[in-house]
Fold each of these.
Amino acid sequence: MPVRSEPVTDAVETALARHKERPGALLPILHDVQHTLGYVPDDAIPPIALALNLSRAEVHGVVSFYHDFRHAAPGKVVIKVCRAESCQAVGGDTVIAHLKRTLGIEFGQTTADGQFTLEPVYCLGNCALSPALVIGSEIHGRATPDRVDELLRAARSGA
Amino acid sequence: MKPIIYVPRDSGALSVGAESVEQAIAAEALVRGIEIELIRNGSRGMYWLEPLVEVALTPGGERTAYGPVRRNDVASLFDAGFHTGAATAREHKRALGPTEQIPYLAKQQRLTFARVGVVDPISIVDYEAHGGWRGLTAALSLDPMAIVEHVTTSGLRGRGGAAFPTGIMWKTVAGAHGPQKYIVANADEGDSGTFSDRMVMEGDPFMLIEGMTIAGLAVGATRGYIYLRSEYPHAHTVLNQAIAAATVKGYLGHNILGSGRDFDLEVRLGAGAYICGEETALLESLEGKRGMVRPKPPLPALEGLFGCPTVVNNVITLASVPFILAEGGAAYRDHGEGRSRGTLPLQLAGNIKQGGLVERAFGITLRELLYDFGGGSLSGRPIRAVQVGGPLGAYLPESQFDTPIDYEAFIKIDAMLGHGGIVVFDDTVDMAQMARYAMEFCAIESCGKCTPCRIGSTRGVEVVDKIVAGTEREANTALLRDLCDTMVGGSLCALGGMTPYPVLSALNHFPEDFTKS
């Protein structure tokens, strides 16, 4: 078995210490690990399974069930763009196509420079101001290709 | 006296620049040496006017609205004297007059949303001053069965979409036996076109807390969970702030208001699975498992979270309860028609000029909502279809726009109200592609437990593609109908069981879109 890297061990131990005793602790633990590391590494699974008295298969099953949990480290900035009906009704597909073309990636991929990861999302609850997307931790409404270009420029320069 | 300036912290307002507007106002006031008090409220629900900035010259005084305010409007608003109520401010291009007189708001019947956008969401003092905790106080003086009786009298039905009578569910849980009982708020608001739960949680979180506490008193539950979708980080922050404040003040936790009753509340985050809005999948997820749907029976009311009797109610259902207890079940029942009592917070979304939240008694028609409130499509083109009730709701053509908002009226036209979301499409929509998307969405979000949903949705996408491509069109159309029939009759829950609604309604009302090529 590969030796776990220190950050993974730290992230898992911190998450376990915080949540282990709570009923139904697995989701809070996985959220914590992903919050710290950006994803849930494979080698985080055995110690979580051991601590919660679950099989590794059970923990893996939960990680793989939920769209939120990533299996690989994302880019510096994660972009989540809405694919749902309300956004489709006002040009969401155009925004998505523009993002894919500009970044040169498909959903679930990260740009070669490690800057952006593009993910689909099914509703951000901003449907009166569709199309909507999230860049990093900021939500944006009434998105257009031009507006997306501005936002990408700002995100690149770290603004 | 310092003027009070309100800038929403609602995530919809933030999505169009509320944060930068707030910073600009604070900076401009500082530069000009003007003392102001800035309050971050929820949204009034008029999203096309966001960021909607309001000014009150005295605490509790009349509020004047300006919107949509951009960062570069701020200096001119100060120049015009918007902070002093100067006559020149009324001429400003963003001036909207007194907020309460804006027709969109004035024509509503806000029972549940009365405080949303008005109060500071995390100020318990504000909540009290606007009628908060009156329902809880009333409930504490009542016998548990009398609380249930109020809810039964009100005619309240589950606002998440199932429309099951809330009083009956509560009575079942109250009469059930178990070592522990739970109240679970379903805040996994995943339907496209809906945001009313989010608005409550971001704009008036104490109302949800109060409703859940009353539910706990009624059924004898001492623990509650809010299962919140991870797509709502702002709601998460506000809820945690509100729970902490309510606990400190004795409205939550041990010995609530000295009554000897306990109720502890915790927020749990989902992880991006639509199916976890289905109540049994939600419970599995809360238990730390894959969100797989459970067969019913047993009902969650009898064997729910961790096998214990559990009330699972949508956020709006629980948020309706404080009004019912404060004003009495009859006051709520007196709104609405037929078996649809009270009000429904409707959400206008998609291609609509004036999108937002409209709370009205049942009985208003779709047409009134789309045109009188919504002002028609955003694009200015004719409205061709609306999808009511989220991704599992039917697409309705113009000929059905006179249908009243009423659970039974919608069932009659093979549609459903669901959570009250209305997504508008103009005449550029391709309904065959919307039918395909409905199947695709079901395939992406299926928990995989039952075959009609897991496999049927994928086959559904393929069959729609064949119809559109013109491959044995008649045979494949018959096959699609047959497949839908299997999914309706053979699925374990509403995801597989209702995905056929958007598909068949598209096929029935817009057949021409399937035969274009």
Note: Chain B is about 40% helix and 15% strand.
Amino acid sequence: MGKTLFEKIWDKHVVKQIEDGPSVVYIDKHFIHEVTSPQAFSGIEKRGAQLFRPKQIVATADHNVPTMHQELPIKDALSKFQVDTLIDNCKKHGVELYGLGHKYQGIVHVIGPELGITQPGMTIVCGDSHTSTHGAFGSIAFGIGTSEVEMVFASQCIMQTKPKVMRINIDGALKNGVVSKDIILYIIAQISASGATGYFVEYAGSAIRALSMEARMTICNMSIEMGARGGMIAPDQTTFDYMKGRLFAPQGTDWDKKVAAWSQLYTDADAKFDVEINIKAEDIDPMITYGTNPGMGLSVRGILPTIESFNDATEKQNYEKALKYMGLTAGQSLLGMPVQNVFIGSCTNSRIEDFRLVASIIKGKQKDPNIKTLIVPGSQEVAKQIKAEGLDKIFADAGVEIRQAGCSACLGMNEDKIPAGEYCISTSNRNFEGRQGAGARTLLASPLTAAAALLTGKITDIRDIL
Amino acid sequence: MQSLQKITSKFIPLRIENVDTDQIIPARFLKATTKDGFGKNLFRDWRYENDDETKPKADFVLNQKQYNGEILVAAKNFGCGSSREHAAWSIQDYGFKVVVSSFFADIFKNNALNNGVLPVTVSDAFLQQIFAQGADDTLSVDLAAQTITIDATGAQEKFEINSYKKTCMLNGYDDIDYLLNMKPEIEAYEKANQ
């Protein structure tokens, strides 16, 4: 029997299978950031051990960094200490750091691909659940805890139970105004926030093949939001075209050899998945979430479920809790509802194509006067590209300021937060209670839907603007 | 790592589904560089009004005096979302040794196991039976036998754990010691796959 893409890469990286236990899996590339690494560094030091393969680690500072005046010292003392600790640790242990002020600094899941560090066939981990982003290149990439970061520091290996495999096929053509963020929000709404727990997901089908690399990254990024261990897409010409010439991508004859090897990374025709799901691209509308987990999403033209539609008492109670937090009513429509904030950024949607999409909508128009914005490129490189293409002028003319690279308002850890009780249309990945700041009400959507709200001040169907 | 064999304790019932790690420990508390002291901020925004420790929310179960113990029982999909191990550290630091649910998110489950907190997965029906018990009733968890028992009724269920992890938990071993001893095999793997 043939193998799935996942199995081909996994099998090649198993150093040892422990009897009735996990596999010891070799890790090719380890990304770290300031939040989930300090206890792993101190753990290694306490054991008197060394980092086993420091050259296979790349570090950046992203979660804590301010997105204005990055040339000044970080104001928050604890944030500053955490970022300084990363600098010290990287220096002491010989780890490459693209820290604050470095031209390659940015969100870890943006810089890995853009620098060509992320490559097909690799195993990649990071103490961050959105590591699944890198799976867009046909790699096995997943988020880990800090004890596991320490494991990889110590041995370049990790203990993992082999997950089951799921394939989600999306075939057909997307409707006008529908982009990759809508695809993944639609999938999660269909199968729920726990629908893929225990599985590694491969996304396939003609609609996926037609997507750019950046659009594929958006999809793989949110795999964790349905509980998946990770998500991946088989590499193809789109992948190779994106990678060619990037800083750390193979060069010359090595490139040709690598492309030949990467071209073998696909699921065999007779391979078996534990679960297979088929979705028609034309069924997907622009999506928006209404609740407090990413599975609570619907078409921007949809109606919130009624209370009566829930049979289970706990589910009913949870739905009511979410509605109360969000200030919404069962059975209502979201269309036309005023919002106060728009956040465009995060490891889900902060790449150059996202900014091009938004710019195409707001060009020559003015933002709604009541809307507050946080528009945040994912990396210094993206910020540079925005300027090179003149997109910064389009934003400025619309009355919108572009900030500096970082995780920003995705997670309420740095200065960028959404005030309690206010709504935010957000291109990020999580709408959990308090995620964007205590009491903040997050509505997840695509960059297009966010751009529409930027102009109208309301939840808007982008197709009414296009 | 702390070892764990058997435990009999009252439990705290958290009848909420999809408890994400942002609720277990909000991001603003992730700025620490040690593993200590997270327990006081466990479920911080569900526990206190306006982040004020003098204003506990009466309707939240951790603030209800009749409920206490070393076992946390939660509805399905516990620990979803962010990979932050700080969630496991806060649960452990608060004093929990076991978390029971009908369904755990993968990363949380690993993080808990790596910190000596045992995640026990039970059936939906058994979870409902636990939730139906009173505040003074106890649960017994026996890791060696892989059983969880509602002591008042004698109802019992077996739970799954692979024998490697079970041995680690019973003895307080951690994975890193195991991996450090595997260095020659790892180096041989690297050589073969260059």
Note: Residues 13 and 73 of chain B are 5 Å apart (CA to CA).
Amino acid sequence: MLKLQNISVQFGAFCLKNINLNIEKGDYYVLLGKSGTGKTVLLEIIAGLTRPAEGKVFLKNEDITKKKIQHRKIGIVFQDFALFPHLTVRENVAYSLKKKKLTRTEKENMVLEYAKLTNVSHILDRSPQNLSGGEQQRVALARMLITKPDCLLLDEPLSSLDVQLRGDLRNLLRQINKSGVTILHVTHDYEEAIALSNKVAVLHQGKIAQFGNTKDVFEKPANEFVANFTGVKNFYEVAFTSETVAIIGDTTQIIVSNRRKLKHGKIIIRGEEILIATKKTQTSAANHFEGDILQIIPYLSNYEIIVDVGIRLTVVITENSLLKFDFQIGQKVWLSFKSTAVKIIDI
Amino acid sequence: MLKKNNVPLIFSLLGGLILLFILAPLAGMFVSTSTEQLFETAQDSDVTESIFLTLWVSGVSTLFFAIGAIPLSYFLARSNFKLKKLINGIIDLPVVIPHSAAGIAILGFISRDSVVGKAASSVGLNFVGHPVGIGLAMAFVSIPFLINAARDGFEAVPVKLEKTALNLGASPIRVFFSVSLPLAWRYILSGLIMMFARGLSEFGAVIIVAYHPMITPILIYERFGSFGLKYARPVAVLFIIVCLVFFVILRTFTKEKNSRNA
């Protein structure tokens, strides 16, 4: 669908070197990287707003590296939304329809359709300057989606929104992706990758440090940077049966603090926050699981112990603790963690 | 040393003196002109024709030159090239050179011996002593006001908005007319007003290119030279009033436009 081949570009202090990416139709691809690593420039290269020094961009097997921006069928939504301040929301959304051979009613119907999809129908006659961040983001998405792009590029779409709005917008982005739009989303926030993507690439020092299925990249970081940056291995899709119980799969129950009363979501439990012991101990932790040690592997300056408790949980301990308790593969152990150690991500 | 509390007072006094320096001569001129003299002058056909000529020639030349000046401003705002500073300097040249020298330069450009003059002569036109010549002289000295204001306006338009418009499928020309121009319009309008106003007041360059037909600044000079201050003053006052009225109307229009865009 969208393929980047050996893209290189030098921009002031940073450069991108030999970037190769292959995004399949229907993918929700997240490109993770710290600020200033060239993520936005890469999007601009794909959209045709910046020329790469080397390399090629292919869309549906067609080399579009030199194709004009307006003919690429790739939509980009910038971090600051870039709404036209002198036009109303309706005029912003309808901007791309002007030269299309449609009747006035057809154009208006399209505007209403996409306004409904993005939930901006009630603000169509307002000026973008009077909208909240979330509303502006939705208008920017409506304006782009109405062009029916083959691929949608999102530059840090959730970074300026508060937690509540992020949840709403994630739902919208997932809905857009499910409708068939391929999405490439750049962010510095690994939670967004967990919440949304099926594939992820990590950008570091101008190169792709690792790419692949989200679960693989998070579970098996290729190097220390990726491990530090992704930083979390225990993440699961769950169904919430109450404000305090999340179910993973059909059987494993986790005690959580689900104050937002979500029905579905993802949870993250950091390996550093799980206690491991040879016997069940009485603590304030609400979650206790017995399981078998599957693997013990060095992790940065510590060790990871992977335990099968019905699900696989990864525990991070120091070398001193490993030596002190002499944990062995196959040994039965008890894991415990507090409900507050479980971070809930709205999906 | 200045006491901290005295600073606003001293600044106000100094500022007040400057304002007085601007207002006092003008106020003196208004006070010395009776309403009767003013009405009499307003009925003088030489004066009214001259004011009308000055207004329309400055207005038309402003609009005519805007057709080229606005794209040039956009180009200067969006392009980076080696000679950009030199070009910006050239644009400011008419402001720094003596206006009589500017008049000589324009005269050389449009006189019958020049290429332009010869071309005009071939169709029976002589720009010297003609409203076209006056318009050229006015535009020469006032066009930097428009170009600089419009360039500032285009520079203030975020490039990202233009990129977004392109990404939405608009052609570069549509991006210019639907995004860049409307967003820079406030600056451009301000530049147009300044160019128009500067054209109205031009004397040095115009007198060399066209003593006749007589624009108002030249008429004032002529009345002063021939009849003295008493006869020149009512013309000056009337012209100032007309200019002020135009200026206020145009500024009000700019503000209305701004508040609609806000």
Note: Chain A touches chain B through 24 residues (CB under 8 Å).
